[in-house]
Write a structure and sequence with these properties.
With 728 residues, this protein is α/β, with parallel strands linked by helices. The protein has 5 domains: 3-63 and 76-167 and 182-189, no CATH class; 221-295, RRM (RNA recognition motif) domain (Alpha-Beta Plaits, 2-Layer Sandwich); 304-452, Alpha-Beta Horseshoe (Leucine-rich repeat, LRR (right-handed beta-alpha superhelix)), CATH 3.80.10; 474-644, Nuclear Transport Factor 2, Chain: A (Roll); 673-726, Helicase, Ruva Protein, domain 3. The protein is 30% helix and 16% strand. A 7-stranded mixed beta sheet has the order 8-9-10-11-12-13-14. The protein has a 7-stranded mixed beta sheet with strand order 15-18-19-20-21-16-17. The chain is elongated. Residues 80-89 have a biased composition (Polar residues).
């Protein structure tokens, strides 16, 4: 027997691998040989050897022997047997399949009497999965060796490693020795004493074949029953259940396509038991039941009909009293499991579930997704919008491996969360670390995996808390309002005048001033007349200026330097009705005042309108106040500001109305304490002084109310009223 390696050998095994797909049994390999013949290859037996080649090469390599004259009969058996042209040879792989023989192993081992045995076998035209008679046996006889070139030998070794996929045990005693016959790429070429350690003899049986089941990504398996259309669903399922008992057996989505039937199981142990039942069950009509198991699950298209079925099942599982939806083992629901596989780990199914929740039960509070083989939570990304009241979520006993999967649930205000039973929980050795990582994502969780947690420490705003309405101005204490108004009136009257030298007394001797400017980020282009060219040179923008010396130069220290800098700026006209004042600090030692508003530069041909923000830090000096620090920011007005600038007229100057205090009659009796107290309160209301200084002012004017108001006005204009008079 010889094994000839011809040119298309590489193509042969590529086609062979493609045909066998993921089949790991000998039967699948023989299916591959039949597929090979359909693709134009020829398998032939010559003098006990086997030859594989393309049909074109077959014609080229066929010996050109001239038949005897007048004799058109086939050559005698002593010549090259044209087995490849006979129907019997083309059926040979089918014959070997009946015996469960790996055709490649049989051909490589060599057969001299395989055709004699085949002569008897082809007479039986029974179904191929009928139990074979126990007396049939195929023996293999080795023949002479043949020298094979090293390149071909390398190909054989490579192909051997490709075909050894775990379904055939080639390390047994039958393959541990060195063959005395032809070169065999499937055995070891090692020790010369291999036959002493045991070797497969001429008539020894084939080694035991062992098939392994590969696990799928979700442990779902498809079980195929060839010729299953001949039997009822109940008969096949009951027969398989009885064989693998007591192993749990829950078939899902039983279907028939063509001549085969199939269903799905979601247990590796069940799938393995079913695979081991292959050809071990004799049916009622005497045939062996073929059982093929593959990893996989069907693709389910969600149409309107299936969506209605899912909606009905969800309605059955919804508790309206607690607003909870229990979808535990949803794919095993009795209303779905018979003919359709609705797995929540499939994105299109989970997306349908979320949409049904949004359309029918948006008030959902609790959702249970336990035991649904979930490996990703990405389809739940929009759940916080479609079920905003969801606070209870159970996703235990799934296949979530990373804690980052919880980021898809961001936005949910979960209080009760179950993750136990997922691989991600095994990554935490300390319970405290596990709780901390979960609370980083869901800070309001108070129950985790059924265990109550201590209340979280947080500073988040309560759900029912309301922010106070915004105001244009903020005055930290009412007593500071009068002083702030007086200060701003006097300061901007002098600032908008032609000469700003009058502001020199408003600054402290050691005062500091800085100015910065920038264009609004929302303005793509600025008109020429609105450019900040008069302010850029003095802008102390620390983001743009990195030089320390220039930074120091643009920081003006001393009231003379400050007034000199302010005098360089264009003449201005401020809009008092645009002012927003924030008095954020008001104490006897320090006052902080922030002002924002609009101004324009009237001396330009087209007066531009600017927006400004000015911060004053004020300290008491003597009987008055001085600016110790000031920051000024200038930018171009926005479109909204331009629409409202200088549009509101100033209010008319009217004399303040006040309650007329009782006056002391001339030559009359002394006022009682109640009358004096009323006079003190009215004076404090009109002047802004506290009660103590108001009483002092009335005492010094002999309780003459009109005189006290006049004296206060004169002293206040002179700036001689001490600041503590306004502290309440």
């Amino acid at each position: 027997m010889e094994y000839r390696l011809d040119k298309p050998l590489q193509e042969f095994f590529q086609e062979f691998e493609a045909a066998r797909a993921d089949v790991t049994t000998a039967e699948g390999k023989m299916d591959g040989v039949r597929k090979l013949e359909e693709k134009g290859y020829c398998v032939s037996f010559e003098n006990g050897g086997v030859n594989v080649m393309l049909k074109e090469e077959e014609e080229e390599n066929t010996p050109k022997t001239s038949p005897p004259p007048g004799n058109n009969e086939e050559p005698s058996p002593s010549s090259i047997t044209e087995v490849r042209q006979s129907s019997r040879a083309r059926q040979l792989p089918k014959y070997l399949e009946d015996f469960g023989v790996d055709v490649m192993l049989a051909l490589s081992a060599g057969t001299t009497d395989v055709l004699e045995s085949y002569e008897e076998a082809i007479k039986d035209e029974e179904h191929d999965d009928r139990a074979p008679p126990p007396t049939r046996r195929v023996s293999f006889k080795p023949s002479g060796n043949r020298v094979v070139k090293q390149s071909r030998r390398d190909w054989e070794l490579a192909i051997r490693s490709r075909l050894e996929d775990g379904d055939i045990d080639m390390n047994g005693a039958g393959f541990s020795g060195k063959s005395t016959g032809r070169y065999n790429p499937y055995i070891s070429r090692g020790s010369k004493s291999h036959q002493q350690r045991g070797g497969r003899g001429r008539n020894s049986p084939l080694p035991n074949m062992r098939r392994t089941l590969q696990t799928g990504p979700n442990n779902w398996f498809r079980v195929i029953i060839p010729h299953g259309h001949k039997y009822s669903k109940e008969y096949i399922l009951k027969t398989l259940q009885n064989y693998i008992a007591p192993q749990p057996f829950i078939p899902v989505a039983y279907q028939i396509q063509g001549t085969e039937s199939f269903f799905f199981v979601d247990s590796f142990s069940t799938a393995e038991e079913l695979m081991n039942a292959d050809k071990k069950i004799t049916t009622k009509d005497g045939f062996r039941l073929i059982v093929k198991v593959r990893p996989g699950y069907p693709h389910v298209e969600v149409d309107d009909k299936l969506k209605e079925r899912i909606k009905l099942v969800m309605g059955k599982r919804y508790n309206a009293a607690t607003k909870a939806l229990d979808l535990t083992k949803f794919h095993m629901d009795e209303d779905l499991v018979q003919d359709v596989l609705v797995c929540l780990f499939k994105p299109n199914i989970m997306t349908t579930i979320v949409n049904i929740i949004a359309e029918n039960i948006p008030e959902l509070v609790g959702l249970n997704l336990t035991e649904n083989k979930l490996y990703s939570l990405e389809p739940l990304t929009s759940l916080f919008k479609k079920a905003p009241n969801l606070t209870v979520l159970h996703i235990g006993k799934n296949r979530l491996r990373e804690l980052r999967q919880l980021e898809y649930l961001q936005g949910l205000r979960l209080e009760d969360l179950v993750l136990d039973g997922n691989p991600l929980c095994d990554k935490f050795r300390e319970q405290s670390t596990y709780v901390s990582e979960v609370r980083k994502r869901f800070p309001k969780v108070i129950k985790l995996d059924g265990i109550n947690l201590p209340p979280p420490i947080g500073f988040d705003v309560l759900d029912n808390a309301k922010l106070p309405p915004s105001k244009g101005s903020f005055i930290v204490v009412p007593e500071g309002q009068f002083m702030a108004r007086q200060f701003l009136e006097q300061y901007y009257q002098l600032y908008d005048s032609g000469n700003r030298q009058g502001l020199i007394d408003a600054y402290h001797d050691n005062a500091m001033f800085s100015m910065s400017c920038a264009y609004p980020p929302t303005q793509g282009s600025v008109a020429a007349h609105s450019r900040l060219i008069n302010y850029i040179s003095e802008s102390r923008n620390l983001v743009r200026i990195n030089d320390f010396t220039r930074r120091q130069k643009l920081l003006h220290v001393g009231k003379q330097n400050i007034i000199s800098c302010l005098s360089q700026f264009p003449k201005t006209q401020h809009d008092p009705m645009s002012f927003q004042v924030d008095l954020v600090l008001f104490t006897p030692q320090l006052i902080m005042l922030c002002v924002t508003g609009l101004f324009r530069e009237p001396e330009q041909k087209t007066p531009p309108i600017r927006s400004f923000m000015r911060t004053f830090v004020i300290v008491p000096v003597g009987s008055g106040f001085c600016i110790i620090n000031e920051e000024l920011f200038i930018t171009c007005a926005t479109t909204e500001q331009l629409e409202s600038a200088f549009k509101t007229p100033l209010p008319a100057q009217t004399a303040p109305t006040a309650v007329s205090p009782p006056s002391q009659p001339q030559g009359g009796p002394v006022l009682d304490d109640a009358t004096k107290q009323q006079m003190v309160e009215v004076l404090a209301q009109q002047t802004g002084m506290n009660l103590s200084w108001s009483k002092k002012c009335l005492d010094e004017t002999n309780w003459d109310f009109q005189k006290a108001v006049f004296v206060f006005s004169e002293l206040h204009k002179q700036g001689t009223v001490p600041p503590e008079a306004f502290i309440k």
